[in-house]
From TrEMBL:
Residue span(s) of domain Glycosyl hydrolase family 13 catalytic: 82-403
UniProt record, GO biological process: carbohydrate metabolic process
Signal peptide: none
Organism this protein belongs to: Kushneria avicenniae
Keyword annotations from UniProtKB, A to Z: Glycosyltransferase, Transferase
Coiled-coil stretches: none
Pfam family, one: Alpha-amylase
Entries under CDD domains matching the protein: AmyAc_Sucrose_phosphorylase-like_1
InterPro entries, sorted: GGa_phosphorylase, GH, GH13_cat_dom, O16G_dom_2, Sucrose_GGa_phosphorylase-rel
Domain of life: Bacteria
Organismal lineage: Bacteria, Pseudomonadati, Pseudomonadota, Gammaproteobacteria, Oceanospirillales
Protein name, per record: Sucrose phosphorylase
GO molecular function, one term: glycosyltransferase activity
Length: 579
Protein backbone atom coordinates (compact mmCIF):
# COMPACT_ATOMS: atom_id res chain seq x y z
CA UNK A 1 0.00 0.00 0.00
CA UNK A 2 1.23 3.51 -0.75
CA UNK A 3 1.94 5.78 2.21
CA UNK A 4 -0.24 8.89 2.35
CA UNK A 5 1.32 11.66 4.41
CA UNK A 6 -0.94 13.67 6.70
CA UNK A 7 -0.33 17.42 6.54
CA UNK A 8 -1.21 19.94 9.20
CA UNK A 9 -4.60 21.60 9.09
CA UNK A 10 -4.27 25.24 8.03
CA UNK A 11 -5.28 27.98 10.41
CA UNK A 12 -8.22 28.96 8.22
CA UNK A 13 -9.47 25.38 7.91
CA UNK A 14 -9.13 24.87 11.64
CA UNK A 15 -10.99 28.10 12.31
CA UNK A 16 -13.89 27.03 10.08
CA UNK A 17 -14.18 23.54 11.55
CA UNK A 18 -13.80 24.64 15.16
CA UNK A 19 -16.26 27.50 14.75
CA UNK A 20 -18.91 25.12 13.38
CA UNK A 21 -18.56 22.68 16.29
CA UNK A 22 -18.40 25.37 18.98
CA UNK A 23 -21.43 27.16 17.56
CA UNK A 24 -23.41 23.92 17.62
CA UNK A 25 -22.46 23.19 21.25
CA UNK A 26 -22.20 26.64 22.83
CA UNK A 27 -24.16 28.98 20.56
CA UNK A 28 -23.35 32.66 20.95
CA UNK A 29 -20.35 31.92 23.18
CA UNK A 30 -18.52 30.30 20.24
CA UNK A 31 -16.45 33.31 19.04
CA UNK A 32 -14.99 33.92 22.50
CA UNK A 33 -14.23 30.20 23.02
CA UNK A 34 -12.58 29.94 19.60
CA UNK A 35 -10.36 32.91 20.39
CA UNK A 36 -9.29 31.25 23.63
CA UNK A 37 -8.62 27.97 21.81
CA UNK A 38 -6.44 29.63 19.20
CA UNK A 39 -4.46 31.41 21.92
CA UNK A 40 -3.98 28.08 23.71
CA UNK A 41 -2.77 26.41 20.52
CA UNK A 42 -0.33 29.26 19.82
CA UNK A 43 1.02 28.86 23.35
CA UNK A 44 1.73 25.12 22.96
CA UNK A 45 2.47 24.74 19.27
CA UNK A 46 6.21 25.44 19.58
CA UNK A 47 6.52 22.64 22.14
CA UNK A 48 4.93 19.99 19.90
CA UNK A 49 7.17 18.25 17.40
CA UNK A 50 5.10 15.87 15.30
CA UNK A 51 6.19 15.66 11.68
CA UNK A 52 3.70 14.65 8.99
CA UNK A 53 3.72 10.86 8.79
CA UNK A 54 1.59 8.09 7.33
CA UNK A 55 -1.24 7.18 9.67
CA UNK A 56 -0.28 3.49 9.84
CA UNK A 57 1.08 0.49 7.96
CA UNK A 58 1.53 -3.26 8.47
CA UNK A 59 4.27 -2.58 11.03
CA UNK A 60 1.84 -0.69 13.28
CA UNK A 61 1.40 -3.03 16.24
CA UNK A 62 0.59 -2.00 19.82
CA UNK A 63 1.24 -3.40 23.27
CA UNK A 64 -1.09 -2.44 26.12
CA UNK A 65 0.48 -2.25 29.58
CA UNK A 66 0.53 -0.41 32.85
CA UNK A 67 3.73 1.44 33.61
CA UNK A 68 4.38 -1.06 36.40
CA UNK A 69 3.09 -4.32 34.88
CA UNK A 70 6.70 -5.60 34.85
CA UNK A 71 8.88 -4.43 37.74
CA UNK A 72 12.39 -5.18 38.92
CA UNK A 73 12.31 -4.82 42.69
CA UNK A 74 11.65 -2.02 45.14
CA UNK A 75 14.51 0.26 44.05
CA UNK A 76 13.92 0.18 40.30
CA UNK A 77 11.86 2.72 38.35
CA UNK A 78 8.93 0.90 36.67
CA UNK A 79 9.00 2.89 33.42
CA UNK A 80 12.72 2.12 33.06
CA UNK A 81 12.02 -1.55 33.83
CA UNK A 82 9.33 -1.58 31.14
CA UNK A 83 11.71 -0.11 28.59
CA UNK A 84 14.40 -2.68 29.45
CA UNK A 85 11.92 -5.56 29.23
CA UNK A 86 10.73 -4.47 25.80
CA UNK A 87 14.26 -3.82 24.54
CA UNK A 88 15.46 -7.26 25.70
CA UNK A 89 12.44 -9.35 24.70
CA UNK A 90 10.34 -7.45 22.15
CA UNK A 91 12.81 -5.71 19.85
CA UNK A 92 11.33 -5.16 16.38
CA UNK A 93 7.92 -6.39 17.50
CA UNK A 94 5.78 -3.44 18.58
CA UNK A 95 5.79 0.05 17.12
CA UNK A 96 3.44 1.54 19.72
CA UNK A 97 2.78 1.20 23.42
CA UNK A 98 -0.37 2.15 25.30
CA UNK A 99 0.86 3.05 28.76
CA UNK A 100 -2.30 2.99 30.86
CA UNK A 101 -2.83 6.07 33.07
CA UNK A 102 0.44 6.96 34.74
CA UNK A 103 -0.69 10.21 36.35
CA UNK A 104 -1.30 10.77 40.05
CA UNK A 105 -4.54 8.98 40.92
CA UNK A 106 -6.74 7.87 43.78
CA UNK A 107 -8.63 4.79 42.49
CA UNK A 108 -9.46 2.54 39.51
CA UNK A 109 -5.74 1.96 38.83
CA UNK A 110 -5.23 5.39 37.31
CA UNK A 111 -8.60 6.25 35.81
CA UNK A 112 -9.45 8.55 38.71
CA UNK A 113 -6.93 11.32 37.99
CA UNK A 114 -5.82 13.73 40.70
CA UNK A 115 -3.44 15.78 38.53
CA UNK A 116 -3.37 15.46 34.74
CA UNK A 117 0.10 16.93 34.33
CA UNK A 118 1.95 14.98 37.03
CA UNK A 119 3.42 11.51 36.54
CA UNK A 120 2.85 9.26 39.53
CA UNK A 121 6.19 8.90 41.37
CA UNK A 122 5.28 5.22 41.76
CA UNK A 123 6.03 4.65 38.05
CA UNK A 124 8.54 7.37 37.09
CA UNK A 125 8.68 10.90 35.73
CA UNK A 126 8.22 12.86 32.51
CA UNK A 127 11.84 12.44 31.29
CA UNK A 128 11.34 8.66 31.44
CA UNK A 129 8.06 8.96 29.54
CA UNK A 130 9.77 11.06 26.88
CA UNK A 131 12.60 8.52 26.68
CA UNK A 132 10.09 5.77 25.91
CA UNK A 133 8.49 8.09 23.35
CA UNK A 134 11.84 8.13 21.56
CA UNK A 135 11.57 4.35 20.98
CA UNK A 136 7.82 3.82 20.52
CA UNK A 137 4.74 5.75 19.51
CA UNK A 138 3.06 6.21 22.88
CA UNK A 139 -0.67 6.29 23.55
CA UNK A 140 -1.79 8.39 26.53
CA UNK A 141 -5.22 8.27 28.13
CA UNK A 142 -7.10 11.55 28.20
CA UNK A 143 -9.46 10.72 31.07
CA UNK A 144 -11.88 13.32 29.87
CA UNK A 145 -15.22 12.48 31.48
CA UNK A 146 -14.33 12.66 35.18
CA UNK A 147 -11.70 13.49 37.78
CA UNK A 148 -10.78 12.20 41.21
CA UNK A 149 -12.62 13.72 44.14
CA UNK A 150 -9.09 14.44 45.45
CA UNK A 151 -8.30 16.69 42.46
CA UNK A 152 -7.73 20.39 43.04
CA UNK A 153 -10.75 21.18 40.89
CA UNK A 154 -13.05 19.17 43.11
CA UNK A 155 -11.47 20.61 46.24
CA UNK A 156 -12.37 24.01 44.78
CA UNK A 157 -15.93 22.78 44.33
CA UNK A 158 -16.18 21.66 47.95
CA UNK A 159 -14.87 25.02 49.11
CA UNK A 160 -16.96 27.04 46.66
CA UNK A 161 -13.92 28.71 45.09
CA UNK A 162 -12.86 29.34 41.50
CA UNK A 163 -12.26 27.78 39.09
CA UNK A 164 -13.43 24.32 40.13
CA UNK A 165 -16.64 25.42 41.84
CA UNK A 166 -18.26 25.59 38.38
CA UNK A 167 -16.73 22.43 36.88
CA UNK A 168 -19.20 19.83 38.15
CA UNK A 169 -22.90 18.95 37.86
CA UNK A 170 -24.84 19.44 41.07
CA UNK A 171 -28.46 18.27 41.26
CA UNK A 172 -31.09 17.81 43.97
CA UNK A 173 -30.97 14.30 45.43
CA UNK A 174 -34.53 13.54 44.27
CA UNK A 175 -33.83 14.38 40.60
CA UNK A 176 -35.29 11.76 38.25
CA UNK A 177 -32.30 10.21 36.49
CA UNK A 178 -33.93 6.91 35.52
CA UNK A 179 -33.51 7.60 31.78
CA UNK A 180 -29.73 7.93 32.12
CA UNK A 181 -27.68 5.02 30.73
CA UNK A 182 -25.80 3.39 33.59
CA UNK A 183 -22.54 1.51 32.99
CA UNK A 184 -22.36 0.55 36.69
CA UNK A 185 -24.76 -0.34 39.49
CA UNK A 186 -23.57 2.46 41.79
CA UNK A 187 -25.84 5.47 42.36
CA UNK A 188 -25.51 8.23 39.78
CA UNK A 189 -25.73 11.18 42.18
CA UNK A 190 -22.96 10.92 44.76
CA UNK A 191 -23.43 12.71 48.11
CA UNK A 192 -20.61 15.06 49.09
CA UNK A 193 -20.15 17.32 52.08
CA UNK A 194 -19.37 20.92 51.06
CA UNK A 195 -19.09 24.24 52.86
CA UNK A 196 -22.67 24.79 51.76
CA UNK A 197 -23.81 21.54 53.30
CA UNK A 198 -24.57 18.15 51.74
CA UNK A 199 -24.78 18.23 47.96
CA UNK A 200 -25.17 15.60 45.22
CA UNK A 201 -22.93 15.52 42.14
CA UNK A 202 -23.01 13.50 38.92
CA UNK A 203 -20.71 10.45 39.14
CA UNK A 204 -21.18 8.01 36.25
CA UNK A 205 -18.60 5.42 37.32
CA UNK A 206 -17.95 5.72 41.06
CA UNK A 207 -18.17 8.11 43.97
CA UNK A 208 -14.45 8.80 43.54
CA UNK A 209 -14.84 9.68 39.85
CA UNK A 210 -16.81 12.91 39.58
CA UNK A 211 -18.03 13.90 36.12
CA UNK A 212 -16.95 17.20 34.62
CA UNK A 213 -19.54 19.65 33.28
CA UNK A 214 -18.68 20.37 29.64
CA UNK A 215 -21.62 22.75 29.41
CA UNK A 216 -19.14 25.13 31.03
CA UNK A 217 -16.71 26.07 28.22
CA UNK A 218 -13.97 26.61 30.80
CA UNK A 219 -13.90 22.83 31.26
CA UNK A 220 -13.42 22.35 27.52
CA UNK A 221 -10.52 24.84 27.51
CA UNK A 222 -8.92 23.02 30.47
CA UNK A 223 -9.09 19.64 28.72
CA UNK A 224 -7.80 20.95 25.40
CA UNK A 225 -4.87 22.33 27.39
CA UNK A 226 -4.25 18.86 28.82
CA UNK A 227 -4.46 17.33 25.33
CA UNK A 228 -1.87 19.81 24.00
CA UNK A 229 0.38 19.14 26.98
CA UNK A 230 0.30 15.39 26.31
CA UNK A 231 1.23 15.95 22.67
CA UNK A 232 4.13 18.13 23.81
CA UNK A 233 5.35 15.28 26.05
CA UNK A 234 5.54 12.81 23.19
CA UNK A 235 2.06 11.29 22.88
CA UNK A 236 1.31 10.17 19.32
CA UNK A 237 -2.01 8.51 20.08
CA UNK A 238 -4.69 9.93 22.37
CA UNK A 239 -7.32 7.63 23.87
CA UNK A 240 -10.53 9.41 24.90
CA UNK A 241 -11.61 7.44 27.96
CA UNK A 242 -15.35 7.01 28.58
CA UNK A 243 -16.04 9.64 25.91
CA UNK A 244 -19.60 8.41 25.19
CA UNK A 245 -20.88 9.84 28.50
CA UNK A 246 -19.33 13.29 28.11
CA UNK A 247 -22.43 15.46 27.58
CA UNK A 248 -25.34 15.34 30.02
CA UNK A 249 -28.89 16.42 29.32
CA UNK A 250 -31.68 15.33 31.65
CA UNK A 251 -34.50 13.55 29.89
CA UNK A 252 -32.08 11.79 27.50
CA UNK A 253 -29.95 8.64 27.85
CA UNK A 254 -26.91 10.91 28.33
CA UNK A 255 -24.81 8.73 26.03
CA UNK A 256 -23.67 9.43 22.43
CA UNK A 257 -25.36 12.84 22.46
CA UNK A 258 -24.75 15.11 19.43
CA UNK A 259 -22.73 17.51 21.58
CA UNK A 260 -20.37 14.68 22.49
CA UNK A 261 -19.74 13.92 18.83
CA UNK A 262 -19.17 17.63 18.14
CA UNK A 263 -16.52 17.80 20.86
CA UNK A 264 -14.79 14.70 19.45
CA UNK A 265 -14.69 16.43 16.05
CA UNK A 266 -13.28 19.54 17.69
CA UNK A 267 -10.50 17.58 19.42
CA UNK A 268 -9.71 15.87 16.11
CA UNK A 269 -9.36 19.29 14.47
CA UNK A 270 -7.06 20.51 17.25
CA UNK A 271 -4.82 17.48 16.77
CA UNK A 272 -4.74 17.90 12.99
CA UNK A 273 -3.76 21.54 13.49
CA UNK A 274 -0.81 20.96 15.84
CA UNK A 275 0.23 17.31 15.39
CA UNK A 276 -0.43 15.91 11.89
CA UNK A 277 -0.16 12.14 12.03
CA UNK A 278 -1.14 11.88 15.70
CA UNK A 279 -4.14 9.57 16.11
CA UNK A 280 -7.38 9.85 18.07
CA UNK A 281 -8.98 6.73 19.58
CA UNK A 282 -12.40 6.68 21.24
CA UNK A 283 -13.16 4.20 24.02
CA UNK A 284 -16.85 3.34 23.74
CA UNK A 285 -17.66 -0.14 25.02
CA UNK A 286 -21.15 -0.36 23.56
CA UNK A 287 -22.95 -2.43 20.89
CA UNK A 288 -21.15 -2.35 17.56
CA UNK A 289 -23.55 -0.10 15.63
CA UNK A 290 -23.22 2.54 18.37
CA UNK A 291 -19.45 2.19 18.42
CA UNK A 292 -19.23 2.78 14.66
CA UNK A 293 -20.84 6.21 15.08
CA UNK A 294 -17.53 7.52 16.45
CA UNK A 295 -15.96 7.40 13.01
CA UNK A 296 -18.41 10.19 12.15
CA UNK A 297 -17.94 11.08 8.51
CA UNK A 298 -14.26 10.28 8.77
CA UNK A 299 -13.86 13.40 10.95
CA UNK A 300 -14.10 11.97 14.48
CA UNK A 301 -11.94 9.07 15.71
CA UNK A 302 -9.19 7.72 13.52
CA UNK A 303 -9.51 4.45 15.42
CA UNK A 304 -12.25 2.70 17.39
CA UNK A 305 -11.96 -0.45 19.47
CA UNK A 306 -13.34 -3.64 17.97
CA UNK A 307 -15.29 -4.35 21.19
CA UNK A 308 -17.31 -7.19 19.68
CA UNK A 309 -14.23 -9.29 19.00
CA UNK A 310 -13.19 -10.34 22.55
CA UNK A 311 -16.52 -11.83 23.73
CA UNK A 312 -17.52 -13.24 20.34
CA UNK A 313 -14.14 -14.94 20.01
CA UNK A 314 -14.59 -16.52 23.45
CA UNK A 315 -17.97 -17.86 22.36
CA UNK A 316 -16.53 -19.16 19.09
CA UNK A 317 -13.64 -21.05 20.64
CA UNK A 318 -15.48 -22.43 23.67
CA UNK A 319 -18.50 -23.51 21.61
CA UNK A 320 -16.36 -24.81 18.75
CA UNK A 321 -18.57 -23.07 16.23
CA UNK A 322 -17.50 -20.19 13.98
CA UNK A 323 -20.99 -19.54 12.61
CA UNK A 324 -21.85 -16.42 14.63
CA UNK A 325 -18.42 -14.91 14.15
CA UNK A 326 -18.42 -15.53 10.42
CA UNK A 327 -21.87 -13.96 10.12
CA UNK A 328 -20.87 -10.91 12.21
CA UNK A 329 -17.57 -10.29 10.45
CA UNK A 330 -19.25 -10.54 7.04
CA UNK A 331 -21.55 -7.65 7.97
CA UNK A 332 -18.80 -5.20 8.93
CA UNK A 333 -19.17 -2.14 6.69
CA UNK A 334 -16.26 -0.77 4.64
CA UNK A 335 -14.06 1.49 6.74
CA UNK A 336 -14.18 5.24 6.03
CA UNK A 337 -11.00 6.60 4.50
CA UNK A 338 -8.45 7.37 7.20
CA UNK A 339 -10.24 5.20 9.78
CA UNK A 340 -9.56 1.74 11.16
CA UNK A 341 -10.22 -0.65 14.05
CA UNK A 342 -8.07 -1.41 17.05
CA UNK A 343 -8.34 -5.19 17.27
CA UNK A 344 -7.76 -6.71 20.70
CA UNK A 345 -8.89 -9.58 22.86
CA UNK A 346 -7.86 -8.41 26.32
CA UNK A 347 -7.12 -5.16 28.09
CA UNK A 348 -6.90 -3.74 31.60
CA UNK A 349 -10.70 -3.96 31.80
CA UNK A 350 -12.77 -7.11 31.65
CA UNK A 351 -14.37 -8.59 28.56
CA UNK A 352 -17.45 -6.49 27.82
CA UNK A 353 -20.60 -8.42 26.97
CA UNK A 354 -22.87 -5.59 25.77
CA UNK A 355 -21.32 -5.94 22.32
CA UNK A 356 -23.01 -9.36 22.01
CA UNK A 357 -26.49 -7.81 22.12
CA UNK A 358 -28.33 -8.84 18.96
CA UNK A 359 -25.53 -11.16 17.84
CA UNK A 360 -26.05 -14.17 20.11
CA UNK A 361 -29.25 -15.60 21.58
CA UNK A 362 -29.67 -15.15 25.33
CA UNK A 363 -28.98 -18.81 26.07
CA UNK A 364 -25.56 -18.64 24.37
CA UNK A 365 -24.62 -15.51 26.32
CA UNK A 366 -25.74 -17.15 29.57
CA UNK A 367 -23.75 -20.29 28.72
CA UNK A 368 -20.63 -18.18 28.14
CA UNK A 369 -21.07 -16.30 31.43
CA UNK A 370 -21.58 -19.54 33.36
CA UNK A 371 -18.49 -21.08 31.75
CA UNK A 372 -16.32 -18.07 32.59
CA UNK A 373 -17.31 -18.44 36.23
CA UNK A 374 -16.38 -22.12 36.10
CA UNK A 375 -12.97 -21.07 34.79
CA UNK A 376 -12.40 -18.78 37.78
CA UNK A 377 -13.81 -15.51 36.47
CA UNK A 378 -16.38 -13.08 37.84
CA UNK A 379 -19.33 -11.26 36.27
CA UNK A 380 -19.74 -7.52 36.87
CA UNK A 381 -23.25 -6.06 36.77
CA UNK A 382 -24.85 -2.75 35.79
CA UNK A 383 -28.21 -1.23 36.61
CA UNK A 384 -30.71 -0.90 33.75
CA UNK A 385 -33.33 1.87 33.46
CA UNK A 386 -35.97 -0.50 34.86
CA UNK A 387 -33.92 -0.92 38.02
CA UNK A 388 -32.87 -4.48 37.21
CA UNK A 389 -29.23 -5.55 37.14
CA UNK A 390 -27.69 -7.09 34.03
CA UNK A 391 -24.15 -8.33 33.20
CA UNK A 392 -21.83 -5.91 31.45
CA UNK A 393 -18.36 -7.42 31.89
CA UNK A 394 -16.51 -10.70 32.45
CA UNK A 395 -13.53 -10.34 34.76
CA UNK A 396 -10.96 -13.00 33.86
CA UNK A 397 -7.59 -13.27 32.12
CA UNK A 398 -8.05 -14.15 28.48
CA UNK A 399 -5.67 -17.10 28.87
CA UNK A 400 -7.77 -18.67 31.62
CA UNK A 401 -10.97 -17.84 29.75
CA UNK A 402 -9.82 -20.36 27.12
CA UNK A 403 -8.79 -23.21 29.40
CA UNK A 404 -11.54 -25.41 27.96
CA UNK A 405 -14.81 -25.65 26.09
CA UNK A 406 -18.39 -25.94 27.28
CA UNK A 407 -17.51 -29.52 28.23
CA UNK A 408 -14.97 -28.17 30.74
CA UNK A 409 -11.20 -27.74 31.02
CA UNK A 410 -9.05 -29.77 28.63
CA UNK A 411 -5.43 -30.08 27.39
CA UNK A 412 -5.94 -27.60 24.55
CA UNK A 413 -5.70 -24.33 26.52
CA UNK A 414 -2.41 -23.13 25.02
CA UNK A 415 -3.31 -24.01 21.43
CA UNK A 416 -6.80 -22.54 21.80
CA UNK A 417 -5.38 -19.30 23.23
CA UNK A 418 -2.76 -18.95 20.49
CA UNK A 419 -5.54 -19.48 17.94
CA UNK A 420 -7.50 -16.60 19.49
CA UNK A 421 -4.53 -14.27 19.19
CA UNK A 422 -3.75 -15.37 15.63
CA UNK A 423 -7.29 -14.55 14.55
CA UNK A 424 -7.04 -11.12 16.12
CA UNK A 425 -3.66 -10.38 14.53
CA UNK A 426 -4.91 -11.09 11.02
CA UNK A 427 -8.14 -9.10 10.96
CA UNK A 428 -8.34 -5.73 9.24
CA UNK A 429 -7.15 -3.02 11.59
CA UNK A 430 -4.32 -2.43 14.05
CA UNK A 431 -3.60 -5.25 16.53
CA UNK A 432 -3.17 -4.46 20.21
CA UNK A 433 -1.84 -7.13 22.57
CA UNK A 434 -2.25 -6.82 26.34
CA UNK A 435 0.94 -7.61 28.24
CA UNK A 436 -0.84 -10.37 30.18
CA UNK A 437 -1.83 -12.05 26.93
CA UNK A 438 1.82 -12.10 25.88
CA UNK A 439 2.73 -13.67 29.22
CA UNK A 440 -0.17 -16.16 29.49
CA UNK A 441 -0.99 -14.72 32.90
CA UNK A 442 -3.36 -16.73 35.08
CA UNK A 443 -6.27 -15.30 37.07
CA UNK A 444 -4.88 -13.17 39.91
CA UNK A 445 -7.35 -14.09 42.65
CA UNK A 446 -4.92 -12.86 45.28
CA UNK A 447 -5.05 -9.42 43.68
CA UNK A 448 -8.85 -9.45 43.84
CA UNK A 449 -8.74 -10.37 47.54
CA UNK A 450 -6.10 -7.73 48.27
CA UNK A 451 -7.81 -4.85 46.46
CA UNK A 452 -11.47 -5.84 46.68
CA UNK A 453 -11.81 -5.08 42.95
CA UNK A 454 -12.85 -7.70 40.41
CA UNK A 455 -10.78 -6.10 37.63
CA UNK A 456 -7.62 -6.83 39.61
CA UNK A 457 -7.90 -10.42 38.36
CA UNK A 458 -6.35 -9.22 35.08
CA UNK A 459 -3.91 -6.60 36.37
CA UNK A 460 -1.09 -8.63 37.91
CA UNK A 461 2.29 -6.98 38.48
CA UNK A 462 5.07 -9.30 37.39
CA UNK A 463 8.45 -9.28 39.14
CA UNK A 464 11.20 -9.84 36.58
CA UNK A 465 12.90 -12.35 38.87
CA UNK A 466 9.74 -14.48 38.87
CA UNK A 467 8.93 -13.90 35.20
CA UNK A 468 12.29 -14.62 33.57
CA UNK A 469 12.47 -18.32 34.56
CA UNK A 470 9.01 -18.82 33.07
CA UNK A 471 10.08 -17.16 29.82
CA UNK A 472 13.26 -19.24 29.62
CA UNK A 473 11.86 -22.70 30.48
CA UNK A 474 10.72 -24.33 27.23
CA UNK A 475 7.78 -26.20 28.72
CA UNK A 476 5.96 -23.36 30.47
CA UNK A 477 2.78 -21.81 29.02
CA UNK A 478 4.45 -18.41 29.40
CA UNK A 479 7.38 -19.43 27.18
CA UNK A 480 5.24 -21.22 24.59
CA UNK A 481 2.71 -18.40 24.27
CA UNK A 482 5.33 -15.62 24.33
CA UNK A 483 7.40 -17.27 21.60
CA UNK A 484 4.37 -18.04 19.46
CA UNK A 485 2.97 -14.51 19.64
CA UNK A 486 6.36 -12.85 19.19
CA UNK A 487 6.97 -14.96 16.08
CA UNK A 488 3.56 -14.13 14.63
CA UNK A 489 4.00 -10.43 15.33
CA UNK A 490 7.35 -10.42 13.53
CA UNK A 491 5.89 -12.29 10.55
CA UNK A 492 2.88 -10.00 10.48
CA UNK A 493 4.88 -6.76 10.36
CA UNK A 494 6.67 -7.97 7.20
CA UNK A 495 3.48 -8.89 5.33
CA UNK A 496 1.98 -6.05 3.24
CA UNK A 497 -1.43 -7.77 3.14
CA UNK A 498 -1.77 -6.86 6.83
CA UNK A 499 -1.70 -3.11 6.15
CA UNK A 500 -4.83 -1.77 7.92
CA UNK A 501 -6.14 -0.31 4.67
CA UNK A 502 -6.02 -3.62 2.78
CA UNK A 503 -9.62 -4.84 2.32
CA UNK A 504 -11.01 -7.92 4.02
CA UNK A 505 -13.45 -10.52 2.75
CA UNK A 506 -14.97 -13.18 5.01
CA UNK A 507 -14.92 -16.74 3.60
CA UNK A 508 -17.52 -19.18 4.93
CA UNK A 509 -15.84 -22.60 5.20
CA UNK A 510 -18.42 -24.01 7.59
CA UNK A 511 -18.72 -24.00 11.38
CA UNK A 512 -15.30 -25.59 12.03
CA UNK A 513 -13.29 -22.77 10.46
CA UNK A 514 -13.09 -19.00 10.68
CA UNK A 515 -11.52 -17.71 7.48
CA UNK A 516 -10.96 -14.44 5.67
CA UNK A 517 -9.09 -13.04 2.69
CA UNK A 518 -6.89 -9.92 2.86
CA UNK A 519 -6.23 -8.23 -0.46
CA UNK A 520 -5.63 -8.21 -3.30
CA UNK A 521 -2.73 -5.74 -3.41
CA UNK A 522 -1.95 -3.91 -6.66
CA UNK A 523 0.55 -6.66 -7.54
CA UNK A 524 -2.09 -9.35 -7.01
CA UNK A 525 -0.76 -10.58 -3.67
CA UNK A 526 -3.43 -12.00 -1.37
CA UNK A 527 -3.49 -13.63 2.04
CA UNK A 528 -6.00 -16.28 3.06
CA UNK A 529 -6.21 -16.76 6.85
CA UNK A 530 -7.87 -19.97 8.03
CA UNK A 531 -8.37 -21.04 11.66
CA UNK A 532 -9.69 -24.32 13.04
CA UNK A 533 -11.84 -23.25 16.02
CA UNK A 534 -12.47 -26.79 17.27
CA UNK A 535 -10.64 -29.44 19.31
CA UNK A 536 -10.61 -31.89 16.38
CA UNK A 537 -8.66 -32.09 13.13
CA UNK A 538 -10.56 -31.25 9.97
CA UNK A 539 -9.68 -31.60 6.27
CA UNK A 540 -8.95 -28.29 4.62
CA UNK A 541 -10.95 -28.07 1.44
CA UNK A 542 -10.44 -24.70 -0.21
CA UNK A 543 -13.37 -23.31 -2.22
CA UNK A 544 -13.03 -23.72 -5.96
CA UNK A 545 -12.29 -20.01 -6.37
CA UNK A 546 -9.11 -20.43 -4.30
CA UNK A 547 -8.12 -24.05 -4.93
CA UNK A 548 -6.32 -23.43 -8.21
CA UNK A 549 -3.70 -21.06 -6.83
CA UNK A 550 -0.23 -21.74 -5.47
CA UNK A 551 -0.38 -20.87 -1.80
CA UNK A 552 2.48 -20.64 0.70
CA UNK A 553 1.83 -20.79 4.45
CA UNK A 554 3.68 -18.05 6.34
CA UNK A 555 3.15 -19.95 9.59
CA UNK A 556 4.58 -23.14 8.02
CA UNK A 557 1.76 -25.25 9.41
CA UNK A 558 0.42 -26.94 6.30
CA UNK A 559 1.08 -27.56 2.64
CA UNK A 560 -2.22 -26.51 1.04
CA UNK A 561 -1.20 -28.21 -2.20
CA UNK A 562 -0.42 -31.50 -0.47
CA UNK A 563 -2.66 -34.52 -0.70
CA UNK A 564 -5.70 -34.07 1.57
CA UNK A 565 -4.31 -31.25 3.79
CA UNK A 566 -5.62 -31.29 7.35
CA UNK A 567 -5.76 -28.47 9.89
CA UNK A 568 -5.18 -29.79 13.38
CA UNK A 569 -7.14 -28.57 16.44
CA UNK A 570 -6.88 -24.79 16.94
CA UNK A 571 -4.23 -24.48 14.23
CA UNK A 572 -4.10 -21.49 11.90
CA UNK A 573 -2.54 -20.85 8.51
CA UNK A 574 -1.69 -17.61 6.70
CA UNK A 575 -1.65 -18.60 3.03
CA UNK A 576 -0.21 -16.10 0.54
CA UNK A 577 -0.17 -16.06 -3.25
CA UNK A 578 0.36 -13.69 -6.16
CA UNK A 579 -1.50 -15.86 -8.69
Amino acid sequence: MSAVLVSALSRDDFHARADAELTFVYGQQAPDILQRLEALIAQHQKEITCEPTPLWNEQTQMMITYGDSVIEGEDSVPLEALERFMREHLEDTFSAVHILPFFTWSSDDGFSVIHYRKVSPAVGDWPQVRHLAGRFNLMFDLVINHVSRESLWFIDYLAGTKPGCDYFIELPEQTDVTSVTRPRNTRLLAPVSTRRGMRHVWATFSEDQIDLDFANPDVLIEMVGVLLYYLSQGARLIRLDAIAYLWKELGTRCIHLPQTHAIVRLLRAVMERVAPGALLLTETNVPHHENLSYFGNGDEAHIIYQFTLPPLLLHTLTAGDAGAMTEWAATLPPLPKGCTYLNFTASHDGVGVRALEGLLPRHDIDALLELMQRFGGFISMKTDPDGQDSPYEINITYFDALKGTRRGADPWQIARFICSQTIMLGLQGIPAVYVHSLLATLNDHEGVTRTGRLRAINRKRWQREALEPLLEAYSTPTHIVFEALSTRLKIRRQEPCFHPDVPQKIIDLGPHFFAFLRGPLPDGRRLLAIHNVTDRSHPLNLPEAYAGHRWHDLLERIDPEGEKPVLKPYRSCWLVTRD
